[in-house]
What does this fold into?
Amino acid sequence: MPGKGKHVTEFQSPDWNKPLDLAEHLAAIPKESTVKGVFFRSAIEQCREATGDAPGRDHYNALSNYPTLELAEVLAQCAERIYPSLSLRKGLRHLGANVFPRLRKTTVGNLIFGTVGRELTSALKMTSRAYKAFSNNVSAELTTTDSNLVVLELRNAWTFPDSYHVGIFEGAIKSYGKHGMITLHEHTPCDLDLQIYFA
It folds into this structure.
């Protein structure tokens, strides 16, 4: 079972129907925060495949820097267009679930994850390096690493960490042929801890 010691009461299942004040969230994103274009491309490709159209610019260079605010706007719009019958948080979750398989195909993604083989635990240990490579201010630190459980402290993650980022890790678990469960402990809208259990 996931959860040990203090983690039992701290971590809760994500609330996919919790109201999300999008305007308030977007207004709080630091203007200096940037993220790589690969995340735009993943969302836009999914949106075009599902609807035939997509928001944002005509082209994003996978390894160029763009405002995090712009990414958050594009993610929200894509989630609403692709999953109009779902809550925004659920839509963002599904959008995030397709990120990891696409990320591994990029040059940097292959450099980071290409050496870990089929070991999910080894891939998760590369999380901190991956966040540093793809964002200028997001930090991700593993504080617990067991054979089938990790705890990740995610900070300054303004692109919906309780939904989009949860989806990213769910997609990673699935891509390694595992089943898992993710619970979270939220501190602020951009700071939370993820407890990732898999088997």
Q: What stands out?
A: The CA atoms of residues 26 and 69 lie 6 Å apart.
